[in-house]
Amino acid sequence: MYVLLFTGILLWGAAVPAAGAGVAIDYEPLGQELAAYLNGRAGEYGVYVVDLHSGVSFGHNAREPFHGASTFKVPLNLYLFAEIAAGRVNPNARLTYREAHYESGTGYLHREKFGTSFCIERLARDSIVYSDNVATNMLLDYLGRSKVIGYMRGLGATVVSDRANVTCAKDLALYFHAVLEFAREYPEHGERLLGYLRNTVHRDRIPRSLPPGIPVAHKIGNWPAQGSWHDAGIVEHPTRPYIIAILSKGTPGYAYACATVREVSRRVYAYQGDPFYRLTVHVNGQPVGLSGVLNRDGRFLVPVRGFVDLLPGYAVHWVPEDRAVLILGTGRVVLRLEGDAGLTFHGGRTYLPLRRIGEELGYVVRWDPETGTVHLSVPGFLEPGAGNEGAAPGEPDSAGEEADLPGNGEKQDPGANFVEGLELQGVSG
């Protein structure tokens, strides 16, 4: 099951329909696939993914509590950078390393002498890039734990404790969404924080299974006592960037957990490159939803059976020996479609361009780019407010072919300008 996280996004200066519009990525197939995979793995896993073009998201155990481990360093640093941007913290001020700050594990500052001082900016960098625990403890002591926790709750996080370090996959996605919001409002400070997240030395999970050169602004977390190895961040996919959080607990160990995280990362990245869509189709003025839609070179390809089921009076029959599809109307064959007639076979289903099958069945087909919806009507039917008064019955609208689906234009150059022009709405639960 997927939910809507954002209401609209403007990314890289290209307008795309909001999540509530007629075209949105369909995460149901991916959600089912990942649930089946994770349910067969040892341990418990929480996953949350947000498509940054449409704002559609889905989760698996998304609100299940996990030990936060070093993922806590993301909201901690976001609060720090917000204080820097507000002028309440000087990033060049120096803090003194005291015995109370000592903690072994990731990082290197625990090898320094007590009494050594470090500037706040360096501590911020080290707490992210090297996941340095001493740097984190020094910053937390300086900022005040209660203020950081209050800030996290103010962002909308729900799995937060005044005493324990806990989180959930959805809250981690929310923190990274807030990082993007912050970077849009304060580009200088936000890009610095994103730069640290992109250049962390710990790249054994989400980035490991992606193509070389894909920027990932992310943060890992380890808590071996609970069999927990996490990763969460922003994957700057060249056509469909997304936020992903993957948490684990009760796993057999580091290698097993990281292999699982990498496999989830790989599957999500692959799906973002060629997803299914959900499309709103108005049939004689009545809106209906159609899932499992493909995009090929900017055209809607619809599953023949799913599409025909939307139309009153029609049925579909598959002839396996001929690899042909028969569309029946009032008990007779009104259309026969064979493989050499332009059918596309994908995942055990048969697809055709939406405009072609609609017009073959006698409908007028119109694409509304403002709402991202398709209108089908019998000749002579005039849909109120559809704006098709000037089109002759049975003729295609002036646009001709289907418009491009969101996020399927030329590939963009990710990296330093990733947040430029990013318009993020509020996050809903």
Question: How would you sum up this structure, described in words?
Answer:
The chain is α+β, with helices and mostly antiparallel strands and 429 residues long. The protein folds into two domains: 2-275 and 417-424, Beta-lactamase; 278-377, no CATH class. Helices cover 27% and strands 28% of the residues. The chain is built from ten helices and 24 strands. Strands 4, 14, 15, 16, 20, 21, 22 and 23 form an eight-stranded mixed beta sheet that branches. Strands 1-6-5-13-12-11 form a six-stranded antiparallel beta sheet, sandwiched between helices. A three-stranded antiparallel beta sheet has the order 3-2-24, covered by helices on one side. Helix 2 runs parallel beside helix 6 and helix 6 packs across helix 7. The radius of gyration is 25 Å and the shape is elongated. The model is unreliable at 1-20, 386-416 and 425-429 (pLDDT under 50).
Radius of gyration: 25 Å
Helix content: 25-40%
CATH architecture of the largest domain: 3-Layer(aba) Sandwich
What count of helical segments does DSSP give?
Answer: 10
CATH superfamily of the largest domain: DD-peptidase/beta-lactamase superfamily
Indicate the overall shape.
elongated
Largest sheet: 8 strands, mixed
> What is the class of the largest domain in the CATH system?
Alpha Beta
Low-confidence stretches: 1-20, 386-416, 425-429
Count the beta strands: 24
Overall structural domain count: 2
The rounded distance between the terminal residues' Cα atoms is 14 Å
Mean pLDDT: 85
Briefly note the structural class of the backbone.
Answer: alpha+beta
Percent range for β-strand residues:
25-35%
CATH topology of the largest domain: Beta-lactamase
